[in-house]
Write a structure and sequence with these properties.
By secondary structure, the chain is α+β, with helices and mostly antiparallel strands. It contains 12 helices and 8 strands.
Length: about 450
């Protein structure tokens, strides 16, 4: 399993705004009225949004944020969407890289990397998992060898979300094999466009290819791209994993994310920002390449009303259950906010949120297929097939249901499997004993490896 003891260090200040939420929203509305202009390019608008602190308001103030708590930050994101402006740049840069660098990086690194994340200039991917190091992430074998003021990287990564559109990667590599495996890892910011980085998309059963395998052959990373210190990468990695589980967990979505994609590969920064907002003034919701968004109870209620299954008492009961699961997730976030305001914490909440999200995905999958009935066996694996299915069924929302049914198997695995989350809760929160092993005392080079 992955050891997820989280240690935090760095220069970022953990600031929490003392302003009341209503006052913050009033401030945001005033700012949007003065600054939103659909005639701006995407890049120009994200420059305004990012440098104002509203693109990532949960980041500390020295890292282009507002220092807001999670719930207030989500509310701010929702307000941007309700106003009808294009939301912040989506992707793993804002979700994972920015808060990790804000926590462990120097101010120079924050200004170099985080600024380009919140303004959408660069897109990021996560180079963590390997073919032989998924659940046991600390068993990674990708090597970084010192060469002057640079490091030469060799290895293979897999399940790299959006690697094909990334400018930079959050790379963890082994920099010292002669110490126990958790102690010889370093977290790097790696240029994805350099020679020696080969990204190969992995086509999923949904028909999409969100994930990739990445082959790294004699790629190079400079010393100043080390985040959190040499051989301290496990502590930094655990921060990234914590942000991942919190972001992927129930109640952690980005309500205002628009369809525009950040980074140089997407080539959308020069397009008109207003073209990514619907004519109603509301933002068009993004759907990550590779998987549909989590279906909420409202969409499924509307589908059930449309085809008459809303009169089925068992479907009504399951709709209420899904709504209840969403409300519990929301209340848990409020509990955590109250605890932090009192200087306390709720240990394991990120892991519990990740488990709750997995349950909601499975429930949405099963309930959606029950509502659409036999039509749920039809799915457009290629884009050109979608219109044919729309014409045959008369239900343009069917691809969301079938896409979720196929995609739902993924979230309980990525970001730390459900089993790993339960192990963490058992060991780190409840204090249950770990399985006996000697990986904390034996050098990684001396540990037995899988055949």
């Amino acid at each position: 399993m992955t050891d997820t003891t989280t240690e935090k260090s760095g220069t970022a200040t953990d600031t929490t705004s003392a302003e009341a939420p209503d006052e913050l929203i009033d401030e945001l509305r005033t700012w949007l009225e003065e600054n939103w202009d659909p005639e701006l390019t995407v890049g120009e608008w994200w420059q305004r949004l990012g440098l104002s602190g509203w693109a990532a308001p949960s980041l500390p103030t020295n890292a282009y944020g507002k220092g807001l708590g999670r719930n207030d930050a989500v509310r701010a994101q929702q307000e941007i969407g309700e106003f009808g402006a294009l939301g912040a740049p989506g992707g793993l840069g804002l979700l994972l890289a920015a808060p990790t660098i804000a926590t462990h990086g120097s101010q120079e690194q924050i200004d170099l990397y985080v600024r380009d994340i919140v303004t959408g200039v660069h897109a990021w991917c996560q180079l963590f998992s390997e073919p032989g190091a998924g659940s046991d992430l600390a068993g990674l074998t990708t090597k970084a060898v010192k060469d002057g003021d640079e490091w030469t990287i060799n290895g293979q990564k897999v399940w790299t979300s959006m690697g094909q559109t990334a400018d930079l990667g959050m790379l963890i590599a082994r920099t010292n094999p002669d110490v126990p495996k958790h102690q010889g890892i370093t977290w790097f910011a790696m240029d994805m466009h350099q020679p020696g980085v080969d990204v190969r998309p992995l086509r999923e059963m949904t028909g999409h290819a969100m994930f990739n395998e990445v082959f790294i052959s004699d790629a190079h990373v400079h010393d100043d791209a080390i985040i959190g210190g040499l051989n301290n990468g496990w502590a930094v990695t655990n921060s990234t994993l914590m942000f991942e589980r919190s972001g992927l967990g129930a109640g952690g979505g980005s309500a205002a994310a628009g369809m525009a994609q950040p980074g140089t590969v997407s080539n959308q920064l020069g397009l008109r920002a207003g073209d990514f907002v619907a004519k109603t003034g509301k933002p068009r919701r993004s759907r990550p390449s590779g998987g549909p968004n989590l279906m909420g109870s409202k969409l499924l209620i509307d589908l059930a009303k449309g085809n008459g299954t809303i009169t089925d008492p068992t479907i009504r009961q399951e709709l209420v259950k899904l709504h209840t699961m969403n409300e519990i997730a929301r209340f848990n976030n409020l509990r955590l906010k109250a605890a932090k305001a009192a200087g306390k914490d709720i240990p394991g909440m990120a892991n519990l949120s990740k488990l709750a999200m997995s349950d909601m995905m499975r429930h949405s999958r099963d309930l959606g297929l029950r509502i659409v009935g036999p039509a749920g066996t039809l799915h457009a694996y290629e884009g050109q097939d979608r219109q044919a299915i729309d014409d045959a069924t008369g239900n343009p929302f069917l691809p969301m249901v079938t896409g979720m049914a196929l995609f739902a198997q993924g979230p309980p695995i990525y970001g730390g499997t459900d089993q790993i989350q339960r192990n963490i809760i058992g060991e780190r929160v409840l204090g249950l004993p770990k399985e006996p092993n000697n990986d904390k005392t034996v050098a990684f080079a001396d540990l037995p490896k899988n055949a």
